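Colleagues,

For the teaching module next term, I've prepared a clean inverse folding example: a structure given as tokens, and then the sequence designed for it. I'd like students to try predicting residues themselves before seeing the answer, so please don't circulate the second half yet.
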């Protein structure tokens, strides 16, 4: 009997890479949470920041479900949804131009412009940022409806040498883009030991649902450099919802303008937020390769 397999597409958006399954033509995995750590393993699997399922939707061109490299399901991924939009158009499930994608963040409007046979430039309406502490959520000694902007961070209790060297501002700004983010500013992001402080902050008690962690260096009023520890995936080359949160944090704290370019290890993203409505993000989506993953019985 021939071994069953699952066809996939490896894609990346500014270096944020996932394994994508087109469930319009492939069966939906029975247990995607269990499959994600195996298929995303960079030594024994395909490799990636997680697994994304592209499914038919009754309310949009497609539905996106994403699973982090540890198997946990996340509400949204900005770089991921750009790749989903590219796949939907490239595979003929929707026409190039304006489409919508159903996510855990809601139904997002997306504009897809093909840049070549394997890529697109995609602009995503990321939704209105969620700023109330209780809704992010983050536990702070303030009203539950209060915004957490340049606020004291109970998760950083003592100064360490790297904090001085990096010029860290130990205050935090918290934003939800459908998933939770905490933003810190510093003079030099390269000095931050992200592999050490990232997991500590991700699971700090003040963040009941864990959190995505970003360190940001302001280069000019319209350009920043950022590094990210993603909840459930660790250090990543880019984070679209995180870059959106950084744009919001910059406007709220007066550090940056309403339109910025975010330099991430995997490239650049363009963010716009007028201080009131939804955040818009523009960036690339590119196919890397296709393949087949062997399925065990019941997978």
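(Answer key — instructors only)
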């Amino acid at each position: 009997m021939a071994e069953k397999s699952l066809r996939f597409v490896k894609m990346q958006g500014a270096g944020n890479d996932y394994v994508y399954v087109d469930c319009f033509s492939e069966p939906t995995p029975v247990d995607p949470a269990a499959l994600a750590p195996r298929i995303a393993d960079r030594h024994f699997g395909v490799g990636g920041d997680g697994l994304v399922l592209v499914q038919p939707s009754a309310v949009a061109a497609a539905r996106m479900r994403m699973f982090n490299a540890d198997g946990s399901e996340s509400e949204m991924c900005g770089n991921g949804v750009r790749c989903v939009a590219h796949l939907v158009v490239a595979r003929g499930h929707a026409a190039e131009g304006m489409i919508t994608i159903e996510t855990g963040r809601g139904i997002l409007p997306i504009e897809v412009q093909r840049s070549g046979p394997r890529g697109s430039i995609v602009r995503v309406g990321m939704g209105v940022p969620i700023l109330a502490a209780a809704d992010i959520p983050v536990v702070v000694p303030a009203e539950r409806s209060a915004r957490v902007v340049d606020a004291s961070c109970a998760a950083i209790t003592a100064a360490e040498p790297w904090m001085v060297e990096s010029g860290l501002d130990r205050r935090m700004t918290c934003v939800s883009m459908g998933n939770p983010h905490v933003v810190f500013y510093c003079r030099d992001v390269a000095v931050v030991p992200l592999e050490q402080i990232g997991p500590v902050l991700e699971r700090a008690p003040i963040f009941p649902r864990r959190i995505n962690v970003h360190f940001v260096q302001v280069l000019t009023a319209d350009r920043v450099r950022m590094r990210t520890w993603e909840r459930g995936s660790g250090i990543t080359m880019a984070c679209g919802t995180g870059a959106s949160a950084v744009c919001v944090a910059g406007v709220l704290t007066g550090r940056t303008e309403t339109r910025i370019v975010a330099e991430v290890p995997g490239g650049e993203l363009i963010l716009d937020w007028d201080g009131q409505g939804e955040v818009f993000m523009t960036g690339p989506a590119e196919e890397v390769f296709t393949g087949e993953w062997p399925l065990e019985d019941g997978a």
